[in-house]
Write the structure tokens for this entry.
Amino acid sequence: MNAQIDWHARSQALKMPTEIVIDGKRSAAQSGKTYEVVSPGTGRVVAKLPDCGPADVDRAVAAARKSFEAGVWANLAPRDRKKCLKKLAELIDAHRDELALMDSVTMGMPISIASGYCVQWAVNCFEWYGEAIDKLYDEVAPTERGVFATITREPVGVVAAVLPWNWPTGLLGWKVPPALATGNSVVLKPDEQTSLSALRIAELALEAGIPPGVFNVVTGGPAVGEAIGRHVDIDVVGFTGSTEVGKLFLKYSAESNMKPVWVECGGKSPNILFADAPNLQEAAQESALAIFLNTGQICAAGSRLIVEESVKEQVMEVIAAVGKSLKPSDPLKAETMLGPIAKASQLERVMSYIAIGRKEGAQLRIGGARVNEASGGYFVEPTVFDRVDNTMRIAQEEIFGPVLSTITFKTAEEAIALANKSTYGLASAIWTRDLSKAHKLARAIRAGSVCVNCYAADAHDVTVPFGGYKQSGFGRDKSLHALDKYVQLKTTWMKL
């Protein structure tokens, strides 16, 4: 990223999308209603978007169904779908600064992270799934003589993708490309606050040659989500967000057409640091970034530091130093590493949990205060709690902010018991030079991913799956396994 760019000037000149995209056309909500998008860095309104409702969801689903049944995308030769997705990857890359600005202004993500990571994820995913399209083979079953049986993948039809606000363009890249790669038509609902980049990518998709009606985007709040969840002509929902809302989508499905709902939900991920870590200083520094990156607004954040008692003080000194060095600041400054909390309601939630931690008796090591209030933004200091008991609410409930709970252990068995005593099971990490111990503990941890001597490094790589155990959800994003969510397997049994 060019550090010399004046991102404030760029943001003033940025053309904000103001309409949804259905059947290849831009339009307002049928009701004519709009809502305001507030920038968390300034507290000021930066855009007005269509406040959609069930009627708009009906329109988007009808367009998706029509395009699917017509076969304009589903029946397209794999090599041609491949060309379109790869072209879209190129266009997203070409519009990197524009998309990164949209995410930074609406979510508060530092512009360097928005450009270098968030948008890059989408580029990688569209390119990778585009390449995968013509490399997927169906199967011939090993049947008895006189029978010929095939197992073929077929697109499910209309896929709805529902995104959170914390990683806008990046998570669009996790959801939309595999659904399109398998021949489906898509209805996307981004979070109401961070919809700008999704609307722009829908326009770029048309430019890339994806036919009208194949990729539709509707904006709005919970009413749109419920309309999607209950819609009887949607075949699959892919959801990323809170466990609470994920459960609502399961309910909507049960009360409508029993559509599969793949949910990637919350986390309270354990980061287990042993005294024999290869480099204790480096482990402590990465453990700090594991909770403070993106202001802690990452589902896989290492929010529970489970550290061996003998090195706890040494580790805490490093984490405290890193936390104090990360000054919450304007996300449009190239040097900013820590932006604001994304929403006023989320700021209240984070501050309430800091108060809960104090009340529960945890020791506040650093932070705990709202800062930069004169800016109008929602900034919170990096916050570290020491002497946390694993039963405390701050150790068990997802805060989704830059708040670390520190828990000590003496034995490996105790560390695993602490790690697994959670309703969540999304991500985890183990820091040790003993690879035998690392293998044993990795098998024992009940989580969708285990990183050894690093934290969440797997999230950046599209070749490996990502998803959770327990109330962190089910189904996997990324890798070839993500394609399984958006296909039906058909057996064709032929007696010869």
Notes: The first strand starts at residue 20 and ends at 22. The chain has a mean pLDDT of 97. The chain has two domains: 7-265+475-493, 270-463.
